[in-house]
Design goal:
alpha+beta, 8 helices, single chain, 3 domains, 3-stranded antiparallel β-sheet, Tetrahydropterin Synthase, Chain A, 3 strands, GTP Cyclohydrolase I, Chain A, domain 1, Helicase, Ruva Protein, domain 3
Length: 200
């Protein structure tokens, strides 16, 4: 099947993948843009998982102020080399993370960062609420699991829905950026301040 340059260009714009990767994905999916994009995402996930154990000592701090200085965010995003740290793709990703944090106020980067006692308390609370509603015993575990999933999706940055595209999570965006840059990328830490909030 002949793949037009316009189709390749469209796929490149939506995924950020290289010309050859786009052509190959379109050939494999017989010109179907959605299938080709899904194929590229899968390949990106594979690449990302292969790079996951590489150390990330370089990167940037992105600072963002929102609402006439009512909300401020600082996020540290790391990569493997100074070369990638200076690329527009990497810088854009770091800035998108600052915007995401400003908009959604997560508490932690990922599930592993949630203190064990807080996770246990949330689970206990969900179980007690289900029991108080006289839910059948065999349903309670599923209810607790669902509540915990929602808790992580709201409070962990990587589990959140990406504010610019609700078909993606922040983790999907991270994996897309790893695939584009060819390096492992990690979100190391962040802080979010809001005027008037009580310091802990």
């Amino acid at each position: 099947m002949s793949i037009s340059t316009d189709l390749i260009k469209e796929l490149r714009l939506s995924t950020g993948a290289g010309v050859l990767a786009c052509r190959k994905a379109l050939e494999q999916s017989e010109g179907d843009l959605e299938k080709a994009a899904a194929l590229l995402r899968e390949q990106g996930l594979t690449k990302a998982s292969k790079r996951a154990d590489r150390e990330t000592h370089d990167g940037v701090l992105d600072l963002y102020s929102h609402g006439d200085g009512r909300v401020g965010v600082m996020v540290e995003v790391n990569c493997e080399t100074d070369f990638v740290a200076r690329t527009p793709e990497f810088r854009e990703f770091a800035h998108e993370m600052a915007l995401q944090i400003a908009a959604t106020a997560p508490n932690w980067v990922d599930m592993d960062d949630v203190p064990k006692e807080i996770a246990e308390e949330e689970s206990k609370k969900a179980r007690e609420e289900a029991l108080a509603q006289s839910k059948p015993e065999h349903v309670i575990d599923r209810i607790v699991e669902g509540r915990m999933r929602k808790f992580y999706e709201e409070s962990c940055l990587l589990k959140q829905i990406y504010i610019r595209d609700d078909s993606k999570t922040v983790a999907d965006l991270l994996n897309d950026t790893i695939a584009k840059t060819g390096e492992n990328i990690t979100i190391r830490r962040f802080v979010r301040w809001e005027v008037g909030e009580i310091a802990e």
